[in-house]
Design a protein that fits this description.
Order of helices and strands: EEHHEEHHH
CATH class: Alpha Beta
Radius of gyration: 14 Å
Strand order of the largest sheet: 1-2-3-4
Structural class: alpha+beta
Helix content: 40-55%
Number of domains: 1
CATH topology: Alpha-Beta Plaits
CATH architecture: 2-Layer Sandwich
Strand content: 15-25%
Number of strands: 4
Shape: globular
């Protein structure tokens, strides 16, 4: 387990998986690509760098998330400055809107709704 720190205090531990995106993709199924695209856009807009490699993370509260990883220290530092919880909250909200508008299964909507609650737990713990 890794403890995530913010400038304010520790908010939640997670386990980083050496599986790239695969755990994230398997967990969110049909919604994973929309979520991944949204996260990529958010990180690119925030850093000016397009993430090309990701790691899946499982948080204590069960949230399956994804974070960009880079071998270049300066790039990783730029990615680490982006608030992961806020990025996921925006990405999940946008994906939920898009998937709802275009139609998706109740199972996917329930999964995204549950993840939204888990993200809010992380945010409110800060």
């Amino acid at each position: 387990m890794v403890t995530v720190h913010t400038s304010r205090r520790t908010f939640m531990e997670f386990k980083a998986l050496g599986t790239g995106r695969s755990t994230f993709d398997e967990h969110y199924g049909a919604a994973a690509y929309s979520l991944g695209d949204q996260l990529g856009f958010i990180y690119f807009r925030s850093t000016g760098i397009e993430p090309s490699h990701w790691e899946s993370r499982i948080y204590e509260n069960g949230l399956v998330a994804m974070a960009p990883v880079a071998t270049d220290t300066a790039i990783q530092e730029a990615f680490d400055k982006v608030d992961l919880c806020a990025a996921h909250a925006r990405a999940f909200s946008r994906a939920m809107e898009a998937l709802s508008a275009h139609g998706c299964s109740d199972e996917v909507l329930c999964l995204l709704t549950a993840a939204g609650g888990q993200i809010q737990e992380l945010i409110s713990a800060v």
